[in-house]
Sequence to fold (115 residues):
Amino acid sequence: MALRMVYDKAMGFAARQYQAVLGNQLSQYGLRYEDLLIEEEAPVKEALELADPEVLTARTRRLKRAIDLSYKRKSLQDYAPNMQLDTFKSELMPDIDKIRARDHEYAQLNAHHKM
Fold:
């Protein structure tokens, strides 16, 4: 029990540190955490198909801007120093979680159809 509490505290500390470092790296290029998701995964692909056009347009623009900034070896702060970014804003993750839950439920309901 005590070992579990120590482990949870250590992992919580490490997770916060990693999130801070990742947030700084993402904000250099103006990206969000959800922009790093692999589009070929089935739940992500389906969530992107179901997303609003504004969400897709904004995601595409962020990715293109990040590619351009990376190529130029510049930071977003060089061009827009006062821009406020929300790197961990979640627009797709609720849909992805619902799709994964649906797929898991479907697999559980059809578990008896194994060949």
Remarks:
- The helical segments are 2-29, 42-50, 53-72, 76-79, 93-109.
- The radius of gyration is 19 Å.
